[in-house]
Amino acid sequence: MARSLRNRNAVHLLTRVLNSVSPCSVTSMRSLQTLAYEEVRAPPTDKPYTSTAFVLHGLLGSGRNWRSFSRTLASSLSDSSPPSEWRMVLVDLRNHGKSAELEGFDPPHDMYNAAKDLANLVESRGWEWPDVVMGHSMGGKVALQFSESCARGDYGESAALPKQLWVLDSVPGEAKREGSDGEVEKVLETLQKLPSSFPSRKWLVNHMLELGFSKSLSDWIGSNLKRSGDQETWAFNLDGAVQMFNSYRETSYWSLLEKPPKGMEISVVRAEKSDRWDPETTQRLESLSSRGEDESRGKFSLHLLPDSGHWVHVDNPKGLLEIVAPRIHSFSF
């Protein structure tokens, strides 16, 4: 038994070392029959990585949205004392980014299957399970579902819970329509009425402005295009993304926050200027955060990111780094 365990550990170590070698800080995009992804490392990248974090984007985004922040986070952890070498895996969720170009992601397009895609990626690549999973907006709920499914045994006995889960400006319960301006719904409804291709990014941005959307939102929508011949087309599968948004809105993970699995810490970051939060939800999170420790469950913490709206990695990346990096570094991986 001891020899078998040593052999398995040796195989895991060899796999980790081989997978850690890459010629630059951002490797080329992998387009597999599982999710597309890219890896970000702190230079020099010839060092074997010791830990892995999955980074999950939000609705209509892609992994590349988080490239700059992930590189900075990896460098911060590498420069800390003692140093730790991290591999950041920036995933394109189903119906988004490069994954939207791949087949094999059958409906329903919901949080459960989006999380299962992550497990399939780990298993198909022969990786160890991620130490940290960080998700923004819709990606935050995919991260919560991934942890819930791991704890429930949905991914088999070999699956290991992440030690830390970061939920970035993502409401953990059902998204309430009351008190909301319905901006996301308006955007999705508008996009569904548009043609599938456009003469240019500038044309799309101007069209969104004419419809009354803000410049920042219009520019962001325009950034999610790809070239197709002499036209621009969406870099996501719009119908599938709409289904994912509906699942995001209808799914609740309060029970997971109330009793995190033992050995795991769930950290929620609320952006100070975000319009996603209502007083009832904030108060409930603050109450969970103020509880005393209980050995029968994992930990929960709540963090306020000042001077930031919903786009936390753009509005205040330095503040976000100051919240995330020390807590990851202080954890035993």
UniProtKB/TrEMBL annotation:
Q: Does the keyword Phosphoprotein apply?
A: no
A Pfam family (short name) is: Abhydrolase_6
The alphabetized UniProt keywords are: Hydrolase
MF terms from GO for this chain are: hydrolase activity
Q: Which Gene3D superfamilies match?
A: alpha/beta hydrolase (3.40.50.1820)
Query: Where does the AB hydrolase-1 domain start and stop, copy by copy?
Result: 55-321
Q: Which InterPro entries does the annotation name?
A: AB_hydrolase_1, AB_hydrolase_fold, Serine_prot/Carboxylest_S33
Q: PANTHER family recorded for this chain?
A: 2-SUCCINYL-6-HYDROXY-2,4-CYCLOHEXADIENE-1-CARBOXYLATE SYNTHASE, AB HYDROLASE-1 DOMAIN-CONTAINING PROTEIN
Q: Which family does it belong to?
A: Belongs to the peptidase S33 family.
Name the record gives this protein: Protein ABHD11
